[in-house]
Specification:
Length: about 110
């Protein structure tokens, strides 16, 4: 976003080339259905955990986590892990509800 202004879902959509549906939900032409494992990994991505940390927490290899993150990016229609984290946190995509930033504080 602009300096000093919070990033809104609409601004994120414009910046990433995604189109916005009524109600502000991001659309990529597909209905995003996530497995329970993908949801677990998405929570770790939003929290800023590395692939190694995520794998350790979930009993997966780093490469398995990388593969899940790649699939999540494809499903979300984003190009990077950061875009995935922002989309999920701001809109609740894949999580059911937006993330309260206070819940991520250590």
């Amino acid at each position: 976003g602009e300096a000093g202004r919070p990033l809104t879902l609409a601004a994120f959509g414009r910046a990433s080339g995604r189109r916005q549906a009524k109600g502000g939900a991001a659309m990529n032409g597909r209905t995003a259905r996530l497995t329970e494992r993908q949801r677990q990994i998405l929570v770790h991505v939003v929290a800023g955990d590395s692939n190694v940390a995520t794998g350790g927490a979930l009993g997966l290899s780093e490469r398995t986590v990388e593969g899940h993150v790649r699939v999540l990016c494809l499903k979300a229609g984003v190009e990077s892990r950061l875009q995935l984290a922002v989309l999920a946190a701001v809109s609740g995509w894949g999580l059911g509800a937006p993330i309260d930033p206070a819940s991520l504080a250590a």
